[in-house]
Amino acid sequence: MGLNDAGQGWHTDMSYSKDIALANVLHAQRVPVRNGKSVGETQFRNMHAAYDELPDSIKHRIEGRTATHDFEKFWEEMRKRPGSRRAKLTEEQKRRKPPVSQPLVRVHPLTGRNILYANPGYTISIDGMDPQESGSILDYLFRHQERADFLYAHHWAEGDVLMWDNIGTVHNAVADYLPDEPRYMRRAQVMATLDYPALVA
Ligand SMILES: [Fe+2]
After folding, report:
1. How many whole angstroms separate alpha carbon 148 and alpha carbon 166?
2. N or C, where is the chain less crowded by C-beta within 10 Å?
3. Count of alpha carbons within 13 Å of 185, Cβ hemisphere only?
4. pLDDT tens-place string over residues 148-164
5. pTM, to two decimals
6. What is the Å distance from ligand 1's center to 11 Cα?
7. What is the CATH number of the domain that holds 39?
8. How many whole angstroms from 172 Cα to the centroid of ligand 1?
C-alpha cells in the first residue's frame, strides 16, 4: 500500500465499482509489536449476521432497493484527517471511478444467503428515496453494523495469511501504530467478475 492511511474507516473493498471484489488476502510481512502486543489490528463485521438481525420493518424498507456507492466519499474522509497528503480527486480520476448502484440486500454468491451490502466508506444514498429518509436509514444501518457480536478483530503475527469474504463483511484497519513502527502487508484481491444470476434479493 502506497498510502499510510490505506484501509482506515469501515468499508467493503471495491463496492464503488461495478465489478466488486469477492475475497481479499493479506500476508503480514512486518507487524509492529509494543509492550509484547501486536498493534495495527484489522477488524471485520459480519454482514450475513447484520442482515439476519435487522428488524422486519427495516428489512421491508430496504428490500429490492439499490444504493449509490462513491469512491470519492472514502477519499474525502481520508483527506479530512490530520496530516493527510491526499490531493482532491481530479475530474479525470472521478470520471474513471463514477458512482455505481448496488443492491442494498444482496444474495451472497457462495452462501446463497442475504447480506447487508452497505458500508460507511462508500455508500452515500439509497436510490429513489427522499434524501432525509435515505440518510436516516443509512445511519441506522451503519449503527446497526457496530453491534459487538458482529465483530472479529484480527491481531496480527508475522507470517499470518488472512483471507476474508469481502462481499459479506465490512472491514477497518486500526492505525494505532507510529511512523517508527513499520508495518508491511502484501495484499491480493479476488474479483467477482462472473455474472451471478441472482445477485439482487
Ligand atoms: Fe480495504
Report:
1. 19
2. N
3. 24
4. 999 999 999 999 999 99
5. 0.91
6. 6
7. 3.60.130.10
8. 7
